[in-house]
Amino acid sequence: MLMENRTARLSLLIDPVKKQIFEEICRLHDMTPSQVVRQMIREFIHTQGTAEQIGRMPRNSMSSE
């Protein structure tokens, strides 16, 4: 499992029921909610980002956790 060298906090508001369901699903997949969110962000960047934006991604974040 590779992690970026530096981290920054991202706070968001979510419906409590969705949060509970999300956490249950994460546990079923033996992943933390943070791992899943980081994976979703990487996938979003790779599918929606420009070549320049993707090129700025840290090398170790290219692989999944």
Q: Which characteristics define this entry?
A:
mainly alpha, 65 residues, 3 helices
Please describe what this structure looks like:
With 65 residues, this protein is an all-alpha fold. The chain has a domain at 16-59. 52% of the residues lie in helices and 0% in strands. It has helices at residues 16-28, 33-48, 51-55. The radius of gyration is 13 Å and the shape is elongated. The termini are close together. The model has no long low-confidence stretch (mean pLDDT 89).
Write a concise synopsis of the structure shown.
With 65 residues, this protein is mostly helical.
Q: Helicity, in percent?
A: 40-55%
Global outline = elongated
Arithmetic mean of pLDDT: 89
Question: Order of SSEs, N→C?
Answer: HHH
Structural class: mainly alpha
How many strand elements?
A: 0
Termini gap: 5 Å
Low-confidence sequence ranges: none
Radius of gyration: 13 Å
Strand content: under 5%
Question: What does the main sheet amount to?
Answer: none
Helical stretch tally: 3
Layout: helices, strands, pairs:
Blueprint: H1 16-28, H2 33-48, H3 51-55
